[in-house]
Design goal:
InterPro entries: PLP-binding_barrel, PyrdxlP_homeostasis
Protein name: Alanine racemase N-terminal domain-containing protein
Order of helices and strands: HHEHEH
Distance between the termini: 31 Å
Radius of gyration: 17 Å
Keywords: Pyridoxal phosphate
Strand order of the largest sheet: 1-2
Shape: flat
Number of helices: 4
Strand content: 5-15%
Structural class: mainly alpha
Helix content: 55-70%
Length: about 80
């Protein structure tokens, strides 16, 4: 947990509760997307990247982007 929240948030338990609820909502949205894709007979569900591919797969992704896990971070200089 970030130090800012620890030192500046008077109600950390409320923040944690809100974050938990947001994650639940996100989970429902992702699950609905997977169900809609299946219903529409779409052949692939592409979601997720190197940092969250396991979660994406758990929610039905058939394709994930993991380039930075293989090749490393991009150099934008």
């Amino acid at each position: 947990m970030c130090n800012f929240a620890k030192t500046n948030c008077r109600c950390l338990s409320l923040v944690l509760c809100v974050f938990r609820q947001l994650m639940k909502i996100l989970g429902h949205i992702l699950l609905c997307c997977a169900k809609l894709a299946q219903k529409a007979e779409l052949p692939a569900i592409s979601m997720g990247m190197s940092g969250d591919y396991e979660t994406a797969i758990a929610f039905g992704a058939t394709h994930v982007r993991v380039g930075s896990a293989i090749f490393g971070a991009r150099d934008y200089t």
